[in-house]
Amino acid sequence: MKTRHKRMAFILAGLAGLAVAAGLVLNALNSNLALYISPTDVLAGDAPKGQTFRLGGMVVEDSLRREDDGLTVHFKVTDSANTIPVTFTGILPDLFEEGQGVVAQGKMQGEVFAATEVLAKHDENYMSPQVADMMEEGEKLKQQQQGGTAAVPQTP
User: Fold this and answer.
1) Is the pLDDT of residue 74 over 80?
2) Distance (Å, rounded) from C-alpha 31 to C-alpha 48?
3) In the chain, which ranges are E strands?
4) Which residue, among 73, 41, 33, has the nearest Cα to 57 in the 3D structure?
5) CB-hemisphere CA count at 13 Å for 138?
6) Distance of CA 45 to the CA centre of its chain
7) Alpha carbon distance 5, 10 (integer Å)
8) What does each C-alpha distance from 151 to 33, 136, 143 come to in angstroms?
């Protein structure tokens, strides 16, 4: 075998190895990807079926209900236009409360979002930019549905 052919075989083997490594990395990244979706998008059917994603919005006032086991809680998350019921088994963050921003990670199980992780805001003034944008879009959609055209107040 000539030197030129050996060099070509070595280059092709290296490229094949690089392609396999890139494929494995992309597969690992894709399986760990958690999309961020609003309740309106979930009800519109834009949520990935059978995949983990993050649901963000505000906890609806008077929707928190605890089961007798002390760990399972049920609450509702809204983006001002639509509401999704959420169930979570575990310890809620200290800052979790009704009327505050929340991001829950989990999967849809029928009509209920089964959360595996719940994140709450970190102080009284913070709301993640994604949740703030979703809330603003929800307010706009709600006003359009009601036929109003009033300006939506900006969140800080």
Assistant:
1) yes
2) 12
3) 35-37, 53-59, 65-66, 72-78, 83-89, 101-109, 112-120
4) 41
5) 25
6) 14
7) 9
8) 35, 10, 9
3-53 pLDDT, tens digit each: 888 899 999 999 999 999 999 988 877 666 666 788 888 888 887 778 888
Give, as one character, the DSSP assignment of residue 61.
T
Sign of the CA dihedral running 64, 96, 125, 37? negative
As a residue count, the chain comes to 156
Q: Of the candidates 85, 147, 145, 88, which has an alpha carbon nearest to the alpha carbon of residue 120?
A: 88
* Pairing verdict, β 53-59 and 35-37: parallel
Strand partners, 37: 55
CA dihedral of residues 142, 42, 60, 113 (deg, nearest 10): 170
In this structure, are residues 77 and 39 in contact, taking their beta carbons and an 8 Å threshold?
A: yes
Given pLDDT bands bounded at 50, 70 and 90, which one contains residue 142?
confident
Do 61 and 117 form a contact (C-beta atoms < 8 A)? no
